[in-house]
């Protein structure tokens, strides 16, 4: 053997000795998950249950379990879903899916963060729930959750959904009762970001002893049903067609909107909340009450009891609320036509507002404050198809002006005023 060959073999052997002396972990083909302790290296496990068991050890608190492959569960049997009892760790879904014909994940007496760095994970609970949470603290930052109930919450649980990519979806192919995207029997549920939708009917089911907070995110068309508990909305986007169920303890959206919040539509106009069904998409927005006779146009009433002739003696100016209800025969906007409202003082225009039906829908509503010490005039601005435009003006529940055909009005001329002159 020549010196060059000996030297080459010596180098190779040296490298092998160094490599084999350094401990490291790698995923064997078929491993379902890995566990990474805080500040440590990832170790792979044949099953996700084994990785979770490692995470549940006291010395491994705060570690991360990462899915390495899609998991299909048998379902229907007690051990055929992923059962998490205790522990404090993060479960990274890692773009993988967990599929079960009957419940996918059960979390009990644990603190778990569910994340999905890849943003493509789907947890499918089949004919049962995607995730059941009992007596646990769970933060959901990623993943799509689908099932009879997307998530079901019970016991002394606190659950927060807060992620752009999070979706909560329910479906009910067998038409069983009790299906919803978010099912809150007990505990606290908070939506900060994410999407809640339903392929069945119900978005939320809430019961006595539960607290549901909608602080952000998007609520798609469907029904909110609260048989009991507290349900509060202080943020988020609500699609056209969101309804409050007939059997709920709440009768209108004004009862679940938090104090200081109202609905505005996508055009930035106030939307009346004394309804149980939304006829347009709405954005929940912070709002400062402007009280007239102790009541705001949003439906809020002051807490005082010192009323005389319907006027609160402690707050608010004296005046009325004018409600302008607009319609278009072909539901294609007013095509430039509008109502201009002007407040006159000392012969000059102090304030003005332009009201029009500017979106492709059949009707729209505008609310205006009419103070008793002001004179308000209403003018018509001509558009392209005035004959299609109609509207009514109601003040204090009385119709004071009705127009069935906008072409009968003169461009730029006053057609109604709040004074008698």
Tag the structure with descriptive keywords.
35 strands; 17-stranded mixed beta sheet; eight-stranded parallel beta sheet; 2 helices; single chain; mainly beta; 421 residues
Structural notes for this entry:
With 421 residues, the protein is mainly beta. The chain has helices at residues 3-21, 48-55, and strands at residues 33-36, 43-45, 64-67, 71-72, 82-85, 88-92, 97-99, 105-108, 111-115, 122-124, 131-134, 137-140, 144-147, 149-154, 158-170, 180-184, 187-198, 202-206, 210-219, 222-226, 230-238, 242-244, 261-265, 270-271, 282-286, 307-308, 311-312, 319-328, 338-345, 348-355, 363-371, 375-381, 389-395, 398-403, 414-417. The strands form 5 sheets. It has a 17-stranded mixed sheet that branches. An 8-stranded parallel sheet has the order 5-8-11-14-16-18-20-22. A 4-stranded antiparallel sheet has the order 31-28-33-34, with no helix packed on it. The protein is elongated and about 80 Å long. Mean pLDDT is 85; it is low at 5-9 and 11-27.
Radius of gyration: 30 Å
Tell me roughly what share of residues is in helical segments. Answer: under 10%
Largest sheet: 17 strands, mixed
- Beta-strand percentage range: over 45%
- Calculate the mean pLDDT score and round it: 85
Structural class: mainly beta
Unreliable sequence segments: 5-9, 11-27
Number of distinct beta strands = 35
Tally of alpha and pi helices:
2
N- to C-terminal distance: 120 Å
Principal-axes geometry comes out as: elongated
């Amino acid at each position: 053997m020549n010196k060059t060959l000996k030297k080459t073999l010596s180098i190779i052997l040296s490298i092998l000795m160094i490599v084999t002396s350094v401990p490291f972990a790698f995923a064997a083909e078929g491993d379902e998950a890995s566990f990474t302790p805080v500040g440590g290296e990832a170790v792979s496990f044949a099953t996700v249950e084994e990785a979770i068991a490692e995470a549940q050890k006291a010395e491994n608190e705060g570690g991360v379990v990462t899915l390495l492959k899609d998991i299909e569960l048998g379902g229907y049997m007690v051990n055929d879903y992923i059962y998490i009892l205790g522990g404090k760790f993060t479960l990274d879904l890692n773009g993988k899916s967990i599929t079960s014909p009957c419940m996918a994940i059960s979390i009990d007496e644990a603190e778990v963060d569910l994340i999905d760095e890849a943003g493509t994970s789907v947890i499918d609970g089949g004919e049962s729930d995607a995730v059941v949470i009992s007596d646990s603290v769970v933060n959901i930052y990623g993943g799509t959750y689908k099932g009879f109930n997307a998530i079901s919450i019970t016991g002394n649980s606190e659950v927060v959904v807060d992620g752009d990519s999070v979706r909560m979806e329910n479906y009910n192919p067998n038409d069983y009762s009790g299906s919803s995207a978010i099912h809150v029997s007990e505990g606290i549920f908070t939506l900060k970001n994410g999407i809640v939708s339903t392929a069945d009917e119900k978005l939320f089911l809430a019961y006595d002893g539960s607290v549901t907070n909608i602080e952000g995110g998007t609520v798609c068309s469907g029904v909110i049903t609260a048989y009991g508990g507290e349900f509060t909305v202080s943020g988020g986007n609500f699609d056209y067609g969101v309804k409050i169920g007939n059997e709920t303890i709440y009768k209108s959206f004004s009862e679940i909107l938090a104090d200081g919040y109202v609905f505005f539509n996508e055009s930035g106009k106030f939307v009346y909340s004394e309804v149980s069904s939304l006829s347009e998409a709405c954005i929940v927005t912070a709002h400062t009450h402007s009280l007239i006779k102790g009541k705001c146009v949003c439906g809020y009433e002051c807490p005082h009891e010192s009323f005389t002739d319907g006027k609160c003696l402690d707050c608010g100016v004296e005046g009325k609320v004018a409600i302008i209800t607009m319609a278009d025969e072909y539901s294609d906007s007013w095509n430039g036509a509008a109502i201009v409202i002007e407040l006159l003082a000392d012969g000059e225009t102090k304030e003005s507002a332009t009201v029009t039906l500017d979106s492709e829908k059949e009707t729209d509503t505008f609310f205006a404050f009419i103070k008793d010490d002001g004179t308000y005039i209403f003018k018509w601005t001509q558009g392209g198809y005035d004959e299609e435009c109609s509207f009514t003006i109601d003040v204090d529940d009385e119709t004071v002006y009705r127009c069935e055909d906008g072409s009968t009005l003169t461009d730029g001329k006053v057609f109604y005023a709040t004074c008698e002159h």
